[in-house]
Design the sequence.
């Protein structure tokens, strides 16, 4: 996989990507490429499991927005699963928590 | 959380015995910083105060590596760096690497006049990050949204008010998600409402993104609003460093209960009063020198 993308699992129309580590400007380009590749696959919903992401900077958040737009164009959805406190405050300060679907736990993930 | 004793990892910057001198033009030197020692803790907002000419801007310039010091050490404890880096010993490459990790809000906002606001914010990202242009655009939008300047993104700096320039400068200073933000007089020249809004913004960045903030300011309302700790300089030395509440005690104390000249001087400064030790001797020695010695 990559530094950030640890595991990709497919369950019906939902693809779940488990992420880990610190998504900063050094990691963002490769992270972006990895997600773009995954988005090109056959899926209705992309779930990014953020529970093991300790830190995300603006280029990481920018990557999430780019992927969100990319999916939206094809009527696919993005779900952010279990962001930690650190990641959550980055989303809050940029008001992105209002646009993204954030699920606290797997049971909150909407059906694809 | 910082422990009471403080380990190396709680520190952002350690300033040790820093001396800074300038040539006076007649072959002599003037010592502006005379053995300055204090620590800046990770995640805190530290306000640097002191009378005009006491060396605040000089100290800030030494902290950002703009001025080289004549003595002492300035140690940076940055993320992912096991050993602290002494900027006194750094070459230009080292300094450039360090500069990516901190942001500076200058008094004027320091925007490029020939570029729009959005282009100004994009510049550090284009220079230092490797993400796609489409992502840079998104980051610029996020940064301008954070400082509530999105509506002005296509304006030139000359079309902005002083407060708007400050906000824009802050968007640019935070473009690369710095670990440390330096502010030189962020509320100078702003009305109280605009100044309070800038304070809110600074606190938001510091609390939510855990940015360490170092703020030089003359505005006491602002200083007491934003500071976790404060440091008072006088004649190139640290008069006192402590928690905000210690300075509040000195500010609010009955002058008769204050301990010594230093506390009376700080009391006067913090209250902005014209009566007190600040006016006693300061100008006189220089005046005496000129009048009596004819220097
Ligand atoms: N480049 C320089 N060359 C010579 N002297 C300097 C230089 N920069 C500052 N000084 C002197 O150093 C002293 C401290 O200046 P500094 O600008 O650090 O003060 P300050 O505390 O920031 O004051 P203010 O509150 O007025 O901004 C002053 O006496 C000043 O004249
Ligand atoms: Mg100054």
Sequence:
């Amino acid at each position: 996989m990559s530094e950030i993308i640890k595991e990709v699992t497919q369950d019906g129309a939902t693809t779940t990507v488990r992420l880990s580590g610190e998504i900063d400007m050094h990691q963002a380009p490769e992270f972006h490429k990895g997600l773009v590749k995954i988005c090109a696959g056959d899926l209705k919903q992309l779930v990014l499991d953020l529970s093991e992401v300790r830190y995300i900077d603006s280029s990481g958040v920018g990557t999430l927005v780019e992927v969100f737009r990319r999916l939206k164009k094809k009527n696919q959805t993005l779900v952010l699963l279990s962001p930690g406190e650190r990641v959550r405050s980055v989303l809050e300060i940029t008001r992105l928590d209002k646009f993204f679907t954030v699920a606290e736990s797997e049971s909150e993930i909407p059906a694809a | 959380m910082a422990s009471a004793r403080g380990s190396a990892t709680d520190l952002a910057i350690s300033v040790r015995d820093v001396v800074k001198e300038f040539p006076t033009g007649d072959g002599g030197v003037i010592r502006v910083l005379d053995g300055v020692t204090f620590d800046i803790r990770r995640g805190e907002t530290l306000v640097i105060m002191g009378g005009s000419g006491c060396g605040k801007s000089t100290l800030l310039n030494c902290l950002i590596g703009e001025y080289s010091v004549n003595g002492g050490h300035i140690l940076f404890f940055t993320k992912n760096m096991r050993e602290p880096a002494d900027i006194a010993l750094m070459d230009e490459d080292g300094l450039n690497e360090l500069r990516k990790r901190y942001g500076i809000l200058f008094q004027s906002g320091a925007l490029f006049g020939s570029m729009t606001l959005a282009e100004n914010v994009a510049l550090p990202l284009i220079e230092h990050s490797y993400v796609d242009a489409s992502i840079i655009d998104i980051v610029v939008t996020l940064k301008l949204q954070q400082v509530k300047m999105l509506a002005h993104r296509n304006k030139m700096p000359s079309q902005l008010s002083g407060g708007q320039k400050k906000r824009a400068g802050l968007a640019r200073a935070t473009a690369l998600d710095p670990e440390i933000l330096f502010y030189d007089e962020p509320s100078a020249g702003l009305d109280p409402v605009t100044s309070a809004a800038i304070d809110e913004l600074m606190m938001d960045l510091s609390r939510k993104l855990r940015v360490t903030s170092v703020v030089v300011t003359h505005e006491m309302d602002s200083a007491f609003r934003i500071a976790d700790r404060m440091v008072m300089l006088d004649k190139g030395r640290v008069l006192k460093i402590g928690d905000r509440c210690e300075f509040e005690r000195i500010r609010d104390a009955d002058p008769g209960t204050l301990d010594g000249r230093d506390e009376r001087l700080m009391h006067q400064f913090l209250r902005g009063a014209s009566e007190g030790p600040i006016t006693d001797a300061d100008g006189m020695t220089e005046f005496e020198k000129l009048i009596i010695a004819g220097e």
